Amino acid sequence: MLVCRSWVRMKFLSNPSRYGARHSSMNATLFLADAAQVTPDGKLHALGIGWSQTSSPISAPSAVGFILHVPWDETNRKIRWTLDLYDADQKPVIIPIGPDQFRPLHVENEIEVGRPAGIKPGASLNVPFAVNVSPLQLAPDKTYVWVLKVGSQEWRVAFATRPLQQAAPPQ
């Protein structure tokens, strides 16, 4: 089960060329956590941030938190983002969705970020997201990567599953 939470505010529309704004590219901050949530006032809260290795199978829920840093000149238009989990060979990770039904682990959303009154041209607006993921049956001793895409840009955060612990032979 995937849960994505975000609060996006719709704001005032104005003409960026009128203020001499120059084109800038979007940026993102992406991280792994044990849990994450976005509050109604636009703050991203997370627990257990920054891990890069986990047990296999992942026995507890996990989360991908990210903040889109939307440039002033890219506000007031639709922005589509996708988030996918791939293995080390860049193959999508397939998850069960029902009896004998499977699909790639994929999340997508479309947002429109407006400009608050008084924001200066050239400033960027932060839009936080939290994607919480149920425990996953991932292969041990493998590398996986979450890939966030917005248009032609992408950001990655990788993690590895630990090798299985082998029981010591009886003595």
Observed structural traits:
five-stranded mixed beta sheet; disordered N terminus; Immunoglobulin-like; 49% strand; 171 residues; mainly beta; four-stranded antiparallel beta sheet
Structure overview:
The chain is an all-beta fold and 171 residues long. It has a single domain, classed as Immunoglobulin-like. Helix content is 0%, strand content 49%. The protein contains no helices and 13 strands. The chain has strands at 2-5, 27-33, 35-38, 44-47, 53-54, 62-71, 78-87, 94-98, 101-104, 106-112, 124-133, 143-150, 153-161. A five-stranded mixed β-sheet has the order 5-13-12-7-10, with no helix packed on it. The protein has a four-stranded antiparallel β-sheet with strand order 1-11-6-2, with no helix packed on it. Strand 3 and strand 4 (44-47) form a beta hairpin. Mean pLDDT is 85; it is low at 1-23.
Kindly summarize this structure in a few lines.
With 171 residues, the protein is mainly beta. Helix content is 0%, strand content 49%.
The first-to-last residue Cα distance is 43 Å
* Rg computed from alpha carbons, rounded to a whole number of angstroms: 19 Å
Shape type: elongated
- Return the average pLDDT rounded to an integer: 85
* Main sheet specs: 5 strands, mixed
Q: Helices and strands in order, then pairings?
A:
Blueprint: E1 2-5, E2 27-33, E3 35-38, E4 44-47, E5 53-54, E6 62-71, E7 78-87, E8 94-98, E9 101-104, E10 106-112, E11 124-133, E12 143-150, E13 153-161
Parallel strand pairs: 5-13
Antiparallel strand pairs: 1-11, 2-6, 3-4, 6-11, 7-10, 7-12, 8-9, 12-13
